[in-house]
Amino acid sequence: MKFSHRFAAGALAVLGWLGPAVVMAQAQEGSAEPAPLPSALDADLFYRLLLGELNAQGGEPGTAYAQIMESALRTNDPVLYERAVQVGFQSGTRELALQAARAWKQAYPTSREANRYVLQILLAMNRITESAEALKTEFALAEPKDRNASLMLAPRFYARVGDKKLAATVVEQAMAPYIANPATAPTAWSAVGRLRLAAGDTPAALEAARRGQAAGPHAEAPVLLALELMDSKLPQAEAVVKTYIDGKPVPELRMGYARVLLDTQRYGEAARQLKFVTAERPEFAEAWLVQGTLQLQDNQIDNAEASIKRFITLSETLQSGEDRGRGLAQAYLSLSQIAEKRKDYPLAAALLDKIENPEDLLAAQTRRASILARQGKMDEARKLLRALPERTPADARMKLMAEVQLLRDNRQYKEAYEVLAAAATKQPEDADLAYDLAMAAEKLGNLVEMERVLRRLIATQPDYYHAYNALGYSLAERSLRLPEARELIRKALEYAPDDPFISDSLGWVEFRMGNKTEALRVLDTAYKARPDPEIAAHLGEVLWSLGERDRAQAVWKEAQQQNDDNETLKETLKRLRVRQ
Question: The whole model's pTM is what?
Fold first, then answer.
């Protein structure tokens, strides 16, 4: 016999996972004729399903699986197939889950959900080669308008498999028809490139980005891959990005390029991209904030203030959330720094009071400490920093470095050295601490200690290239052991060939060795990549020595506009008796 609709609906509600079936059984008092339940739901089937659920909840998933799977096969109900997959996983036997998913797919060949279960289970079992057919079906079942989105999901599917190279090969083979189709080729090549990148084959990933762009010069997917490759320290990928940027880029991708330029300390180029973004998309809030931060860094105080205030105005239209909160915190920190530079200390403190995000407490208190130090209250400033809570080791490290930076900014180099020395004693394996300690020793004129620390750092961490550069530059600055200095700097460039500051060191040592033409070439390139006052000081001196005094003064003037308080620049102009 069969259950009445009202009884069946109540019982099915207890089996909450049968959501769609419960909706079909709208047996409410006073309602119209309830929607009929599937005719297959007779007493025997209902009892089997109820037992299956009780077994699943009672710690007998194997028995539950057999009961629910049999019910799925009898009814051909996709809801029951899906439940069988879930219980198969619960049993700890992925093979059972796969069996259920395949039965579901066989019963519903056009079900993307069933096919995706098969694909994901195979990948969870690391059966990469076997997943190819399911992946092809995933692409084929996608609506034409959704095909590119489906192709872009492939790297996510294979993100956790063991053999990344095999995954890249399998996916590329599955995508063959789409690589050959101009409408999908840029996306398909980009997905293949991401899998190659995950496999550690960056040259092949770059080739995929190039081929994707060749198939669709205005496509965005190859550019996104190229930006990721630039992040992976593959400068050749920038050609793909520039080709796109030289066309009509969407502001979001131009912004992505600016972020990568910032990460590689190419601030001048980043600023140019941000200028385009704010002109093309004036409502792009983030671009104004980043632009203002760069302008502040370059000492363009009025421009920075205008950009940051523009961000704050635009942020009112953004949805509230963590990103908006962090952006506003950064904005108020920057405006506080501007007020501090103008010696308006009450305003600087009031702006910090606007920061509500607890994640930015340390940054806010660091700025408060800087304000106190500017007012001659260094002891109070250091106490403020030391009183900050330490929830994690990272918090402790940030507190330490904030105090050191505070002391450096106020030229209290002896105290900074003492703080670093105490920390380095507790953490002798910390390369960054050792490096900072060496630089603090150099500021104190203790060059023997500086060299000792840097040589020990090179011996213990041979890939810490900052140590090679610092030691080489120090020797060059003192005109000591210049051939050795050049070799140390060249070693640093092997690790970071595009670092303009290391190139600056190389140019300076060439100058000290009398190779003025080579020094000019190296420093000119470094300054174009990073127009920093330190590099400007060296480039200007080389130009001055070569008789190009007008150009030298132009370079120095540009640097002074950025930061007229740079010690190297001030010392250079004083030593050469140059009046600007």
Answer: 0.68
